Structures are given as structure tokens and as C-alpha cells.
Amino acid sequence: MTHFSETSSPNIPLDVPLGKSVSYPSGYSASLLFPIARAEARRSLGLDLSSPLPFTGWDLWNAYELSWLNAKGLPKVALLRIKVAITSPNIIESKSFKLYLNSFNQTRFETVHQVFDRLRLDLQAILGGDVDIELIGPDQFAGEQIKEFDGINLDKLDVEIDTYEPNASLLKLASAAVNAASGLNDRTVQNEKVFSRLLKSNCPVTDQPDWACIEIEYSGKAIDHASLLKYIVSYRLHNGFHEHCVEKIFMDLMSSCRPKSLSVYARYTRRGGLDINPWRATPDMSEPNICRSARQ
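-> C-alpha cells emitted (296 positions)
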């Protein structure tokens, strides 16, 4: 039986590997993977799990420390990139994913195709849904690019902040005076892309900081930039998994600002050789660029 911790963060099993001293595996083992159900976190957002999700998107994982042995015992390396469908019932606890990947280190595979198939089958089984997998070999490393978010940089604003727990009431539409200065009115549909490098949340198991750059693109009534920056910074003491934080931000923006279209994309910095990049959007929005940022 799985037991859950009595914390403010939803759905955290007590037997989760994260935050515990765990022996590194000597050989391949899919049993190292540890699933965490999405359901409880989504219920905390008021979502009806019997209805379609109010957003589309994916969770993009990059794994930088994948290695195995070929048939002759020679080590091979690759980058692993996976896209997890948001309809999957589970996410993967990150330390368990790291341990699982490390279990490949001293395991022999005849071909890289066997590595690919093993990864795909194991990840689909633990996630309970489809997953897109890409192995990027050393000959392709030079094509891996660093790209920063574009749009309006909210971090240049000079604002006073005193709230460090998520508070949707911070979100405001732009005032009539601000709209007038920008040549807008209450009926104007604003198409805007903004970003901030100041998103910080904390691991709900270990309390370790999770750092991210977040990009928000929307179409609708203009959102007050200062209020949006204050809201982003308000996650600074919040405990939550990456995926849940992005879904909460999406839901709060939809509820408070009611945009016609919305995209929320966060690129979290690397930990344990892994980075996680959740994207949530209304169905009409285009997928974002998946290039990593300099901080990753």
C-alpha cells in the first residue's frame, strides 16, 4: 500500500525516493521508476477530472547523463529528450528517473535501437500514456542551440514586492490610463508575449529551490505588467512540482484575466542531470521553441 505525507503539497507518497539516501544501481532496473499521479494536484485546482482538460500542452524532459555499454563493453553516451502527454495519469518523480537512467551505465545493449525501445516501453508503462522519445547522439551535439525567451522582459520593472506565496488576487488588467498611454481601450484585443527569469518554487519533498524562466503569451485585454511580475514572484516560497506550478499559473491567469488565448511555458534549470519544461496553453496556441536557455 502507498502512503501519503501530510503536507500542504498534494499527493506526495512517503516512499518517494527524492530526499532519501538511495544506493545507486549496479544494473538496469525499470523498477526504479516512481510514478506520481497528476489527479490530486489537479483536483486542488478545482478541475473536474471527468471532463476534458481546459488546456493542451506537454512536459518536456531533457536528460543529459545517459550512458550505456555497447556489445563490446565500450561506453556510449547520448542526450535523451522526452515529451510527456498531459493526458498521462502520472508524472515521474525526478530522482527515481535519475536512478533509472543510471541503471543503464553498466548494462550492455547490442544496438542503440535496443536502448531506445527499452526507454520507450518503460516510460510509457510508468506514465500510463504516450511519450515521444528522441535520442541525440554525439554527432548531433553541435546542433543543440541555446535560445532565450523573447518578448517583453518583466524583470526590468521596478516594483515593490512583499508576497511570496501564490496569490491570484495580485493579477490585474491594465488600467484605463495605462491602456490610453499605449493607444488601447477596453475593447482592444492585446496580443502580447512577456517573460521573466524570476520564477522560483520549491520541491515539495526536499524544499530545494527550483529555478525557472517563464514565458507567457496571450491574446485578450491587456494584463498589467507589474501585477503579473508580482504574481510570478509570489511562487518564491511555494512548494509544488514543476508541472503543477505551471498548471496553477495557467488556471489563475484564465480565471483572473480571462484571455481569449493563453500559453504558459516554464523552463526549469537542471538538477541531477535533468531539466523539466512544462507547457500549458489553449488549443489555438502554437507550440513553443524547445531550445534550452543559458541557465539550463
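The CA atoms of residues 171 and 228 lie 6 Å apart.
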